[in-house]
Amino acid sequence: MARIFITGVAGFLGSHLADRMLSLGHEVVGCDSLIGGYLDNVDARVEFYQYDLNFHNSIVKVTRDCDVMYHCAATAYEGLSVFSPFLVTKNIVTSSVSAFTAAICNGVRRIVNCSSMARYGENEVPFLEEMQPRPQDPYGIGKVAAEQFLANLCTIHGVEFVNAVPHNIIGPRQKYDDPYRNVASIMINMMLQGRQPIVYGDGTQKRCFSFVQDDLPVLERLAFEPGISGQTFNIGPDEEFVTINQLAGTIADLLHFELAPTYVKGRPQEVRLANCSAAKIRRCFDYKTRYSLRDGLAEMIDWIRKRGVKPFKYHLDLEIVSDLTPKTWKERMF
Prior knowledge:
Strand order of the largest sheet: 3-2-1-4-5-6-11
CATH class of the domain at 3-169 and 211-235: Alpha Beta
Structural class: alpha/beta
Order of helices and strands: EHEEHEHEHEEHEEEHEEHEEHHH
Helix content: 25-40%
CATH architecture of the domain at 3-169 and 211-235: 3-Layer(aba) Sandwich
Shape: globular
CATH superfamily of the domain at 3-169 and 211-235: NAD(P)-binding Rossmann-like Domain
Number of strands: 14
Largest sheet: 7 strands, parallel
Strand content: 5-15%
Distance between the termini: 45 Å
């Protein structure tokens, strides 16, 4: 059995991944600053440290004797990154380099880096792994830079690495009181409060959503499968390519909610069509989608209902406020 280190272990993806690894008999160590996670997401069996990855000396200490690192931590605020670029860059690029450096220093066998489909930007859909990245915002630029740091450092120092590109993962444990990200969770939280959801632009921008339990078996294999070092893998379905309007409609239908969304001006640099091909992951790992979008949303609704709706917390500062800054954030509309 392996000793696994997970950055962002109190977050949505990191906590589910920790549970998966524990169920397989591995030891799990992890850290989280709790910017984007909930402490009660963390299983009691995890050796947990409430550390920011930018506290590099501390990260070096807690990653000792680990075999694999999963780098899940990220301030995954694509839209916000246009208006808070320093915050997002510090917690995407600098924090990633800190994590990778600590792992390499301590002799991990492999680093699995969770990147983002923001790397693809305005490429034609569906996005393929071999496409040249064309990020459109500071978040996507930071994710590509982190990948480049990882490849450079691991190649020099002889450490295996893999880039995973999960896209639009949804499910229980996702932070739903955050006004800056997680569209499905935001809409569910609002509708459960009897409030109409807010849609940027005309709502015809399209996305695919991936239920977390469908992604975990593949993410597990990326840590142990031989012969894949240096590769990038999209993880998630390419079925059910839906508009944001359709997403809102499905949530409303599940809640028996009379839908009349509030439409606001679109956000700058938002990619209209974002859909990753799942062809490679199907071919290499027999990936299958077991949850439909409707099934995944139903589980999220059940979890949020049980946990209780929450007011939205504007916990991150806007660094650039201008006429382009969404009024949803300036006026705290959520």
